[in-house]
Amino acid sequence: MDVALHDVSVVRGGREVLVVPALAFAAGRATAILGPNGAGKSTLLRTVAGLERPRSGSVSIGGQPARSGPRPAGAVAYAFQQPVFLRGTVRSNFHLALRLRGVHGGSSRRRIDEVAAACGIEHLLDRDAHDLSGGEGQRANLARALSLRAPVTLLDEPLSGIDGPVRRQLLLDLPWLLRDFAATTLLVTHELEEALRLAEDLVVVLDGKVHAAGPKAEVVRRPADQETAAFLGFTILPRGRGAVAVPPGMLRAPAGESGLTWEMSVTGLVDLGTHREVAGMVAGMRVSARWDGASVTPGERVTAGANPDDVVRFGA
């Protein structure tokens, strides 16, 4: 099912925390809602779920207007950022969630076994849900949402609390899990790598406003504005009466044959193992560039540059 918001405004404590004039999530695709902490990402997710009541505007799911309050049974599955389990085993919590969706008996058992195997949590099913570690709870939380096979699946920071090899494996597995167990997926994250690995589309939310939305390649390669570019890791540098945004890793020093150059006052050199970066000041701003020279010392002036075809230009 597709999801659409129109003229949505959410106010909390007398302050407008989310403003969405128009936004659509395509049916059958995974969309990452990306932004820094406190930007309004979870508020957007909760509004779609009907857990947050907007002051104005509307949400539609599958072309049908969704009234204020929780969505119709079965339409939405939601995995909260902090897992919530009732007393009993992980398995009993799964059975309860499925029973509330009208799935009973053998069908419920088959769904649980299938999703547990896919998510690698078979060994957790008969554990007390309140005894799970943070990472275990998050994986079980994710699997429970996927077991519902809802038309719309909402995941709030699905990899929160999971680190190390398990997180790396889930980054590889989750796109396939979403394809097998979910239809339309909206997931919240503050990490660009996570968004790019897990989703087909991106929505960038900054300060309660949607700054960019669309296929991830378009959003990342051609940021809509300077704020989006800066959040995505671009280096913003002055150029004439405007500015250019240099993609991560594309600013180099010495400039060599680069068509765009800036004078840089060096503050330090950092060895990152595979390459070195020089840090310094350009037009009063702190920047870093990949260093391809032999040596450099603090206080020295060098020229940093970028290929004109790589940058994004913004007007005054």
Structure description:
This protein has about 325 residues and is α/β, with parallel strands linked by helices. It contains 8 helices and 18 strands. It has a 6-stranded mixed beta sheet with strand order 6-7-8-3-9-10, sandwiched between helices. The two termini are about 40 Å apart.
Task: Note the topology.
Layout: E1 3-12, E2 15-25, E3 30-34, H1 41-49, E4 56-61, E5 64-66, E6 76-79, H2 90-100, H3 105-119, H4 134-147, E7 152-156, H5 164-181, E8 184-189, H6 192-198, E9 201-206, E10 209-215, H7 216-221, H8 226-231, E11 235-239, E12 242-246, E13 252-253, E14 260-271, E15 276-282, E16 285-291, E17 301-306, E18 312-314
Parallel strand pairs: 3-8, 3-9, 6-7, 7-8, 13-16
Antiparallel strand pairs: 1-2, 1-4, 4-5, 9-10, 11-12, 12-18, 14-15, 14-17, 15-16
Characteristic key phrases:
single chain; 316 residues; alpha/beta; Rossmann fold; 2 domains; 8 helices; 27% helix
What does the overall shape look like? globular
Beta-strand share of residues: 25-35%
Give a short account of the largest sheet. 6 strands, mixed
CATH class value of the largest domain: Alpha Beta
**What is the count of structural domains?**
2
**Distance between the amino and carboxyl termini:** 41 Å
Q: What class, by secondary structure content?
A: alpha/beta
User: Multimeric state of these chains?
Assistant: single chain
H/E element string?
A: EEEHEEEHHHEHEHEEHHEEEEEEEE
Q: For the residues shown, what is the average pLDDT? A: 92
* Uncertain residue ranges: none
CATH topology of the largest domain: Rossmann fold
Taking strands numbered 1, 2, ... along the chain, how are they ordered across the largest sheet? 6-7-8-3-9-10
Q: CATH architecture of the largest domain, please?
A: 3-Layer(aba) Sandwich
